[in-house]
Amino acid sequence: MARTRKLPLVYVVDDEPIIASSLTTILRLKGYDALAFTDPIKAEEAALIESPDLLISDVMMPGLSGLELAINVQDACPDCKVLLFSGQAATSSLLESAHTCGHRFDLLAKPVSPGDLLKEIERTMKYEA
């Protein structure tokens, strides 16, 4: 059963626990209902139960890439916005491939400062496709 909520729900997914928990803490301090996941498959399962307003995910993760996660979550939750981040330059070619299939995601380079991340989240949440 879904929770009753007034705050935007954000799923933060990164296989590095310190990154997932740190970003979640920052988001909570800024007024978001944020949940951290270190396993992208668990994040995908959670999205099927309760649709997030925003998915923030690392791209390169074992088991399921952040790009695959983003596509799956948007297929199940069309109103969910997506923001991806990565520390690897090769990620841009993956995004191009997703774009040709009709998916468009913004990408931030790691490391990202909390201020820049919050600005990008605000911009992403206001964007209407």
Class derived from helix and strand content:
alpha/beta
Strand sequence of the main sheet, in spatial order?
Answer: 2-1-3-4-5
Number of strands: 5
Order of helices and strands: EHEHEHEHEH
Quick tags:
129 residues; five-stranded parallel beta sheet; globular
Quick structural overview:
The protein is an alpha/beta fold and 129 residues long.
Write the layout of secondary structure elements.
Layout: E1 9-13, H1 17-29, E2 33-37, H2 40-49, E3 54-58, H3 66-76, E4 81-86, H4 91-100, E5 106-109, H5 114-126
Parallel strand pairs: 1-2, 1-3, 3-4, 4-5
Walk me through the structure:
With 129 residues, this protein is an alpha/beta fold. The chain is 44% helix and 19% strand. It has a 5-stranded parallel β-sheet, with helices on both faces. It is globular and about 35 Å long. The mean pLDDT is 85.
